[in-house]
Amino acid sequence: xxxxxxxxxxxxxxxxxxxxxxxxxxxxxxxxxxxxxxxxxxxxxxxxxxxxxxxxxxxxxxxxxxxxxxxxxxxxxxxxxxxxxxxxxxxxxxxxxxxxxxxxxxxxxxxxxxxxxxxxxxxxxxxxxxxxxxxxxxxxxxxxxxxxxxxxxxxxxxxxxxxxxxxxxxxxxxxxxxxxxxxxxxxxxxxxxxxxxxxxxxxxxxxxxxxxxxxxxxxxxxxxxxxxxxxxxxxxxxxxxxxxxxxxx
Length: 249
Description:
Elements: H1 2-50, E1 51-55, E2 69-74, E3 80-81, E4 88-89, E5 100-103, E6 113-119, E7 124-128, E8 131-134, E9 137-138, E10 180-184, E11 189-193, H2 203-206, E12 209-210, E13 214-224, H3 234-237
Antiparallel strand pairs: 1-2, 2-13, 3-4, 5-6, 5-13, 6-11, 7-8, 7-10, 8-9, 11-12
Protein backbone atom coordinates (compact mmCIF):
# COMPACT_ATOMS: atom_id res chain seq x y z
CA UNK A 1 0.00 0.00 0.00
CA UNK A 2 2.85 2.36 0.81
CA UNK A 3 4.43 1.62 -2.54
CA UNK A 4 1.17 2.42 -4.26
CA UNK A 5 0.89 5.61 -2.29
CA UNK A 6 4.46 6.50 -3.26
CA UNK A 7 3.77 5.85 -6.89
CA UNK A 8 0.72 8.09 -6.80
CA UNK A 9 2.77 10.77 -5.07
CA UNK A 10 5.36 10.75 -7.85
CA UNK A 11 2.66 10.99 -10.49
CA UNK A 12 1.13 13.91 -8.67
CA UNK A 13 4.48 15.67 -8.50
CA UNK A 14 5.02 15.03 -12.19
CA UNK A 15 1.58 16.47 -12.97
CA UNK A 16 2.28 19.54 -10.87
CA UNK A 17 5.58 20.10 -12.68
CA UNK A 18 3.85 19.88 -16.04
CA UNK A 19 1.21 22.35 -14.90
CA UNK A 20 3.93 24.70 -13.65
CA UNK A 21 5.80 24.43 -16.95
CA UNK A 22 2.60 25.17 -18.89
CA UNK A 23 1.89 28.18 -16.68
CA UNK A 24 5.45 29.45 -17.18
CA UNK A 25 5.23 29.01 -20.96
CA UNK A 26 1.88 30.80 -20.99
CA UNK A 27 3.34 33.63 -18.91
CA UNK A 28 6.37 33.90 -21.23
CA UNK A 29 4.10 33.99 -24.28
CA UNK A 30 2.01 36.72 -22.67
CA UNK A 31 5.13 38.77 -21.89
CA UNK A 32 6.35 38.42 -25.48
CA UNK A 33 2.93 39.48 -26.76
CA UNK A 34 2.91 42.52 -24.49
CA UNK A 35 6.46 43.46 -25.56
CA UNK A 36 5.60 43.19 -29.24
CA UNK A 37 2.39 45.20 -28.77
CA UNK A 38 4.29 47.96 -26.91
CA UNK A 39 6.97 48.00 -29.62
CA UNK A 40 4.33 48.33 -32.36
CA UNK A 41 2.57 51.17 -30.51
CA UNK A 42 5.87 53.00 -29.96
CA UNK A 43 6.79 52.54 -33.62
CA UNK A 44 3.45 53.95 -34.75
CA UNK A 45 3.79 56.93 -32.42
CA UNK A 46 7.37 57.52 -33.61
CA UNK A 47 6.35 57.13 -37.24
CA UNK A 48 3.23 59.29 -36.97
CA UNK A 49 4.44 62.20 -34.87
CA UNK A 50 8.24 62.33 -34.60
CA UNK A 51 10.10 61.04 -37.66
CA UNK A 52 9.44 59.52 -41.05
CA UNK A 53 11.52 58.24 -43.93
CA UNK A 54 11.46 59.48 -47.51
CA UNK A 55 13.01 57.98 -50.65
CA UNK A 56 14.06 60.19 -53.56
CA UNK A 57 12.56 58.82 -56.79
CA UNK A 58 12.99 61.79 -59.17
CA UNK A 59 15.73 64.21 -60.11
CA UNK A 60 13.86 67.44 -59.23
CA UNK A 61 16.20 68.19 -56.30
CA UNK A 62 19.53 67.28 -57.91
CA UNK A 63 22.32 67.83 -57.02
CA UNK A 64 21.25 68.45 -53.41
CA UNK A 65 19.39 65.13 -53.35
CA UNK A 66 19.92 62.21 -55.72
CA UNK A 67 17.63 59.46 -56.91
CA UNK A 68 18.15 56.62 -54.46
CA UNK A 69 18.81 58.82 -51.42
CA UNK A 70 16.89 57.67 -48.34
CA UNK A 71 16.14 60.50 -45.94
CA UNK A 72 15.23 60.88 -42.31
CA UNK A 73 12.54 63.54 -41.90
CA UNK A 74 11.85 65.39 -38.65
CA UNK A 75 8.06 65.55 -38.25
CA UNK A 76 8.12 66.96 -34.72
CA UNK A 77 9.83 70.20 -35.75
CA UNK A 78 6.75 71.75 -37.35
CA UNK A 79 4.06 69.55 -35.84
CA UNK A 80 2.17 66.56 -37.13
CA UNK A 81 -1.45 65.92 -38.06
CA UNK A 82 -3.34 63.46 -35.85
CA UNK A 83 -4.50 60.62 -38.13
CA UNK A 84 -8.24 60.50 -38.68
CA UNK A 85 -8.81 64.02 -37.36
CA UNK A 86 -8.39 67.62 -38.46
CA UNK A 87 -6.20 68.32 -35.42
CA UNK A 88 -2.47 68.93 -35.49
CA UNK A 89 0.17 68.56 -32.77
CA UNK A 90 2.13 71.85 -32.52
CA UNK A 91 5.79 71.77 -33.49
CA UNK A 92 8.72 73.33 -31.68
CA UNK A 93 9.90 75.45 -34.66
CA UNK A 94 8.60 77.30 -37.70
CA UNK A 95 9.45 76.74 -41.38
CA UNK A 96 12.34 78.88 -42.55
CA UNK A 97 13.31 80.07 -45.99
CA UNK A 98 15.76 77.59 -47.48
CA UNK A 99 14.36 74.56 -45.61
CA UNK A 100 14.01 71.34 -47.58
CA UNK A 101 10.55 70.08 -46.67
CA UNK A 102 8.37 67.04 -47.27
CA UNK A 103 4.74 67.96 -47.90
CA UNK A 104 1.38 66.88 -49.26
CA UNK A 105 0.93 68.80 -52.54
CA UNK A 106 -2.47 70.26 -53.45
CA UNK A 107 -2.71 68.66 -56.89
CA UNK A 108 -2.38 64.99 -55.85
CA UNK A 109 -3.87 63.50 -52.67
CA UNK A 110 -1.76 60.34 -52.52
CA UNK A 111 1.57 61.97 -53.40
CA UNK A 112 4.34 63.24 -51.12
CA UNK A 113 6.90 65.69 -52.49
CA UNK A 114 10.13 67.24 -51.27
CA UNK A 115 11.20 70.74 -52.37
CA UNK A 116 13.00 73.81 -51.08
CA UNK A 117 11.03 76.58 -49.37
CA UNK A 118 11.85 79.85 -51.16
CA UNK A 119 8.83 82.04 -50.40
CA UNK A 120 7.42 82.88 -46.96
CA UNK A 121 4.09 84.59 -46.19
CA UNK A 122 4.32 88.25 -47.24
CA UNK A 123 7.27 87.71 -49.61
CA UNK A 124 7.28 89.11 -53.13
CA UNK A 125 8.80 86.65 -55.60
CA UNK A 126 9.83 87.02 -59.21
CA UNK A 127 11.92 85.05 -61.68
CA UNK A 128 13.55 86.64 -64.70
CA UNK A 129 15.30 84.34 -67.16
CA UNK A 130 15.82 81.67 -64.47
CA UNK A 131 17.12 84.16 -61.90
CA UNK A 132 15.08 84.35 -58.68
CA UNK A 133 14.36 87.66 -56.94
CA UNK A 134 13.04 87.99 -53.40
CA UNK A 135 11.48 91.30 -52.33
CA UNK A 136 13.29 92.97 -55.23
CA UNK A 137 16.73 91.53 -54.44
CA UNK A 138 18.57 88.85 -56.40
CA UNK A 139 18.76 85.57 -54.47
CA UNK A 140 22.11 83.80 -54.24
CA UNK A 141 21.32 80.15 -54.98
CA UNK A 142 24.49 78.02 -55.10
CA UNK A 143 22.33 74.90 -54.87
CA UNK A 144 20.31 75.65 -58.03
CA UNK A 145 21.03 73.50 -61.10
CA UNK A 146 20.16 74.55 -64.66
CA UNK A 147 20.08 72.74 -67.98
CA UNK A 148 19.71 73.65 -71.65
CA UNK A 149 16.03 72.66 -71.63
CA UNK A 150 14.01 75.39 -73.43
CA UNK A 151 11.50 77.52 -71.55
CA UNK A 152 7.83 76.53 -71.52
CA UNK A 153 4.35 77.80 -70.72
CA UNK A 154 1.77 75.74 -68.86
CA UNK A 155 -1.98 76.37 -68.37
CA UNK A 156 -1.70 75.56 -64.66
CA UNK A 157 0.38 78.71 -64.15
CA UNK A 158 -2.72 80.86 -64.53
CA UNK A 159 -3.20 80.69 -60.73
CA UNK A 160 -0.48 83.35 -60.45
CA UNK A 161 -2.82 86.03 -61.83
CA UNK A 162 -4.67 86.13 -58.50
CA UNK A 163 -1.48 87.01 -56.59
CA UNK A 164 0.24 89.60 -58.78
CA UNK A 165 1.59 92.79 -57.25
CA UNK A 166 -0.33 95.97 -57.83
CA UNK A 167 0.29 97.47 -61.24
CA UNK A 168 0.60 94.22 -63.19
CA UNK A 169 -2.33 93.61 -65.52
CA UNK A 170 -3.54 90.02 -65.04
CA UNK A 171 -5.20 90.07 -68.48
CA UNK A 172 -1.86 90.39 -70.27
CA UNK A 173 0.15 88.36 -67.77
CA UNK A 174 1.76 85.31 -69.45
CA UNK A 175 4.07 83.45 -67.04
CA UNK A 176 6.55 80.80 -68.13
CA UNK A 177 8.68 78.35 -66.21
CA UNK A 178 11.71 80.65 -66.33
CA UNK A 179 10.05 84.09 -66.20
CA UNK A 180 7.11 84.90 -63.90
CA UNK A 181 5.90 87.31 -61.25
CA UNK A 182 6.22 89.40 -59.30
CA UNK A 183 3.67 87.69 -57.06
CA UNK A 184 2.93 88.09 -53.34
CA UNK A 185 2.75 85.03 -51.08
CA UNK A 186 -0.36 85.37 -48.86
CA UNK A 187 -0.52 84.54 -45.16
CA UNK A 188 -0.56 80.87 -44.28
CA UNK A 189 1.05 79.86 -47.59
CA UNK A 190 4.51 79.01 -48.93
CA UNK A 191 6.22 78.87 -52.31
CA UNK A 192 8.28 75.73 -53.08
CA UNK A 193 10.90 75.19 -55.80
CA UNK A 194 13.00 72.22 -56.82
CA UNK A 195 16.76 72.79 -57.00
CA UNK A 196 16.90 71.22 -60.47
CA UNK A 197 14.96 74.14 -61.86
CA UNK A 198 14.17 73.04 -65.41
CA UNK A 199 13.16 69.52 -64.29
CA UNK A 200 10.98 70.29 -61.28
CA UNK A 201 7.18 70.35 -61.14
CA UNK A 202 6.69 72.76 -58.23
CA UNK A 203 4.83 75.87 -57.03
CA UNK A 204 5.34 77.56 -60.36
CA UNK A 205 2.83 75.07 -61.75
CA UNK A 206 0.51 73.78 -59.02
CA UNK A 207 0.50 76.89 -56.87
CA UNK A 208 1.04 78.00 -53.30
CA UNK A 209 1.29 75.49 -50.47
CA UNK A 210 -0.95 75.81 -47.40
CA UNK A 211 0.90 75.53 -44.10
CA UNK A 212 -1.16 72.52 -42.93
CA UNK A 213 0.22 70.46 -45.81
CA UNK A 214 3.76 70.48 -44.41
CA UNK A 215 4.92 67.03 -43.24
CA UNK A 216 8.42 67.66 -41.92
CA UNK A 217 11.97 68.91 -42.44
CA UNK A 218 14.54 66.66 -44.16
CA UNK A 219 17.47 66.16 -41.76
CA UNK A 220 20.02 63.68 -43.13
CA UNK A 221 20.58 60.83 -45.59
CA UNK A 222 20.62 57.50 -43.77
CA UNK A 223 21.29 55.40 -46.89
CA UNK A 224 21.94 56.00 -50.57
CA UNK A 225 22.56 53.92 -53.68
CA UNK A 226 22.56 54.36 -57.43
CA UNK A 227 18.98 53.38 -58.18
CA UNK A 228 19.47 53.87 -61.93
CA UNK A 229 22.24 51.29 -62.15
CA UNK A 230 21.76 48.34 -64.51
CA UNK A 231 23.83 46.05 -62.28
CA UNK A 232 21.94 43.39 -60.31
CA UNK A 233 21.13 44.26 -56.69
CA UNK A 234 22.15 47.94 -56.90
CA UNK A 235 21.00 48.58 -53.31
CA UNK A 236 23.90 46.36 -52.21
CA UNK A 237 26.43 46.81 -55.01
CA UNK A 238 25.97 50.52 -55.81
CA UNK A 239 26.01 52.06 -52.34
CA UNK A 240 27.03 55.74 -52.17
CA UNK A 241 28.99 55.49 -48.94
CA UNK A 242 29.99 59.17 -49.02
CA UNK A 243 26.32 60.25 -48.76
CA UNK A 244 25.34 58.11 -45.77
CA UNK A 245 24.90 60.28 -42.68
CA UNK A 246 25.20 63.50 -44.69
CA UNK A 247 23.17 66.44 -43.44
CA UNK A 248 20.74 68.15 -45.81
CA UNK A 249 20.80 71.87 -46.50
